[in-house]
């Protein structure tokens, strides 16, 4: 028997099954078994959810009553924190999250970031006074800039860190005064459905927040993006889908916020504290490598290449995984068999391209159930190979040699992506020179962490448009209205 009751839709304040009663299986990655079922929304359900969000935005005081809205969202945040253990358990079962990731990105970090958003909204200057000036041909005018919510937001999210991404979209959007339709990935409906339940408990007004789960692929998402009642699409996922969303949104010039893929480079310079700096690259196995900002390319000096491969063979070869009770384990299974097939196809591509498979590259013998994959290391990789250019989204590290600092910067930047990266060097001057020249939205210098509730996150180039989290991530959900008044 399934462990969880059916995940329900939230439409116009009501938790309910799909209108035609359809459900689909939610498959747990640990063993490939069904953990429960989720409502499989129809286009009719979606239509009602968009209609509810539009009505709540246009006809209630949600968008204008800042104090009341933030107070309601504080109740929502408190209840989410009270549901921490439930969110943790579902993340474990539905995403395949081991404890080390639950204590961080899969649960505790996102819950810890809620107050920053709500404090930002509470203290926000909703109006700027630009003073009196003679503007245009007329007399003196007083100019003001009002900051107003964008309107109805479609939040379309992926399966890799659902609670982090769901909350990083819906809480700032709601706090800014928008109304929201959340469409999670088909693989992770339950974590989204919990947010719907908690929203009802927190008494968010009907229509303000709606959750639509569906088995996909793409039908509901496409209809949501194309609907003229939606003002902004906030999307995290693959660059290919991001492009498709942008093209569909262009029809009605809806605003888009896109947080897309990455192929981030960690650069270890020749003077770095070499063993710890190289060892940190084994962090590619965090969440089984299913992270957009994961450092999946390691760039090391040509003169120390063999040394780096020896260190990584030892460190990655001794990574422990598969114990759901071990608090230090950070690698679980991949999300689905589909994703594992995708990762396996890249192993073949890498071999055919002439890269040397040093470690892993297969399904671990001790895990015949679920979607496990071994920590994998490719050496003798050149940056023009597909395994160095394309997002694999598995526990796969590729190691590329460089000649000098400028060559390392050139290789790091030789990518369609620009999401993240890092550098290690004993010389802060050299490290900062690299940090300034690598074209990415986030960057780590000597192990420093850029990830927090108050730090903006997003990408250059094809890694996206806009920023999530931080004040910038709140302001994504605002429009500016410039007003002239008689002086
Ligand atoms: P997608 O980017 O295709 O899916 C992410 C979300 O987008 C899901 O909710 C999906 O739901 C929705 N979606 C898909 N197509 C459309 C569309 N045309 N219009 C609107 N919404 C849409 O990722 P996949 O799950 O297919 O994963 C494939 C690859 O994407 C991974 O291997 C990885 O490389 C990358 N990826 C990157 C992520 C990141 O954080 N940067 C996160 C997840 C994946 P539905 O299928 O129901 O439409």
Walk me through this protein's architecture.
This protein has helices at 43-59, 66-82, 84-95, 99-102, 108-112, 114-122, 162-176, 189-201, 219-226, 239-250, 274-279, 305-317, 337-353, 386-389, 405-413, 428-437, 470-475; strands at residues 9-11, 14-16, 23-27, 34-39, 127-134, 140-149, 152-156, 179-183, 209-211, 232-236, 255-259, 264-268, 295-301, 356-359, 376-379, 396-402, 417-418, 421-424, 444-445, 460-461, 464-465, 478-486. With 487 residues, the chain is an alpha/beta fold. A hairpin with a 5-residue loop joins strand 5 (127-134) and strand 6 (140-149). Helix 2 (66-82) packs antiparallel against helix 6 (114-122) and helix 2 packs antiparallel against helix 7. The longest helix is centred in the N-terminal third of the chain and has 17 residues, at 43-59. The mean pLDDT is 97. The protein binds NADPH dihydro-nicotinamide-adenine-dinucleotide phosphate. Residues 156-158, 160, 183, 185-186, 214, 216-218, 221-222, 225, 236-238, 241, 244-245, 260-261, 292, 339, 342, 391, 393 line the site of NADPH dihydro-nicotinamide-adenine-dinucleotide phosphate.
Mean pLDDT: 97
Total number of domains: 2
Tell me the CATH architecture of the largest domain: 3-Layer(aba) Sandwich
Determine the CATH topology of the largest domain: Aldehyde Dehydrogenase, Chain A, domain 1
Please state roughly what percent of the residues sit in beta strands, choosing from under 5%, 5-15%, 15-25%, 25-35%, 35-45% or over 45%.
15-25%
Tell me how many strands there are: 22
